[in-house]
Amino acid sequence: MKQRQSRRQRNAPTISDVARSAGVSPMTVSRVINGESNVRAKTRDAVLAAIESLGYTPNRAARSLASADQIIIGLLYSNPSAAYLSEVLVGGLEQASRHNIQLVVEKCDTEEDAETVAARLMAGGVEGLLITPPLSDQPRMQELLRASDTPAAAIASENAYNNTSAVSIDDYQAAFAMTRHIISLGHRRIGFVIGDTNQIASGRRLAGYRDALREAGLPVDDALEAQGHFTYRSGLQAAEQLLAVEDRPTAIFASNDDMAAATVAIAHRRGLDVPSDLTVCGFDDTALATTVWPELTTIHQPIIEMARAAVDLLVEEVRARRDGEVLEGRHQLLDFTLVQRQSDAPPPAESDGKRRVGGTTSV
Amino acid sequence: MKQRQSRRQRNAPTISDVARSAGVSPMTVSRVINGESNVRAKTRDAVLAAIESLGYTPNRAARSLASADQIIIGLLYSNPSAAYLSEVLVGGLEQASRHNIQLVVEKCDTEEDAETVAARLMAGGVEGLLITPPLSDQPRMQELLRASDTPAAAIASENAYNNTSAVSIDDYQAAFAMTRHIISLGHRRIGFVIGDTNQIASGRRLAGYRDALREAGLPVDDALEAQGHFTYRSGLQAAEQLLAVEDRPTAIFASNDDMAAATVAIAHRRGLDVPSDLTVCGFDDTALATTVWPELTTIHQPIIEMARAAVDLLVEEVRARRDGEVLEGRHQLLDFTLVQRQSDAPPPAESDGKRRVGGTTSV
DNA sequence: CTGAAAGCGCTTACAG
DNA sequence: CTGAAAGCGCTTACAG
Fold it and tell me: What is the pTM of this model?
């Protein structure tokens, strides 16, 4: 009898190879891949080990053909969020492939663009939208989402509403933690650069800063707060303003890394060393934080995980809708990390003296 | 006997529906769809009519599963290339979906990591590797590729060899164009910050700078060249060095944006305005170029298109290998753009005077 | 918690 | 020129 020639061209391992290697059925491997809970831990581990050792990657075509469950979600981003974008993509793509759904990535430069793109995606069968800042904070985008009834999930936003979920860190707690850290270093006059007023996070970070001051019995001083807009340039101006204050701060905490980097630049122009003369801390832990010198002590947001979580939320919502139910927009909080690098130190001895006076005379 | 429930969720027509409607077998429909010639004209017309009337569209997942034409390529990246990453992803994913191939994205932090990851991917059926700088410039990675015989394509690299293709701009021409631009502004003493010596682009950019100087009849002066390593910090030192030179340059051209941004910082510390006292130009057009103030005049690399081109090259090579032939690694050149922003201007009037003297006394 | 069977929609390899 | 069979690699639906 003639042997039929195999049709396989790739020599990639399949689910059956994994099953054989792990001593289970393909079905069990499938369950592990899809993260189903009804698999014994021991079985799961054996499967995972086999997957790892064989270097198995599920065949997407086979998965989507078999599941007949093709979900497509869109990822919308605009220019200013370029710092987040790569991480959002990495996390989003990873989770999308895990759910075996398709992620369509679209850029929209202007606000009008966003509207057009969103409309086109929805017409093209996209059932959910992932949005990143600053797009997610634009009123027009929010209206659009509200009106469209398309489920959406915003990354790095605390603003959840009816059909829109949000994933973020707790901006208030993060700013609180950073301020407390600066205080613990011995600083008593701590400047703050406020973020752009039309992003919700700005107010939360400001509140965290103020409350940490209060908790330590330090005065909340208007003169130590300067308005910025999350841009480097605005940070330049804010820092000028804060460092021109009589009895200037020994530390400045900026609401993002761009403005913190600008603060370092201004400090240097004035001949101040960072951190020995001035402590400067940022927020976000973008690439800039480790580009500038000294590298910035800042708050790290787990963007990759946030993107993953947003995809999860969205997929859950889309599936629920297919079953006829509509979930409320949910807000998921992830943990931040305070990353200490080279831009913070105790205050200089000279102001250390002033500090005690300030501490006593505080209102 | 209980009827098994159907698994079909979409109600789209299939190849069998078309076959039934046209009174032929699914096989014949398949031939028509694929434009094979061995079908009678009459049969073909009947099939085409059925396709038309049913509104049939082939299922892509089924096609790629059945055709066993599944190509998987891997995208390897390491931390320092974060600036490129989002664009590489956007371009790479787009082209991958166009070719109906799968793109697996993997991060590898250390050089050893790269080796492990690459090995795992290859074992996992990945038939081609896309690599980004600085991974593509690491000798160890290059050895690995040479040894493995896996086709690869490097983005933003001019270094093509046997099984590895490369896509890049012409670094020499770009540096030449930028230098010429600075000269055309009236500058005669132009400093240059050299890039890290183990990236090939560094030497090419340096050569472009020098040749543009020569073309204009300007001296190539060692004192105006400072060594950097593509990091902000190294740019700080290089700029200090260049600005300490007696009869200091009126313009500094840095081999990347990080070092250009550092040069701006040093200029500001010394009380020099950019661009009225000092012109500063960069290379790459990363996010940093538009973050700092003034925004940098720089060379833009079309990373998205480079990623697309790299995917094309790779897919072509993989297909060729399946047919038994091996293509030589090719090098594809894409156009760069000189983006003029706010960091360049004619030299200050004072040095304008010196310039003429310098021009005359040049060796 | 696990597996055997059937099937997703198409194409390859073979036989007429 | 055409078709019956087998198979791509996975998941659903069912049965234990």
Answer: 0.79
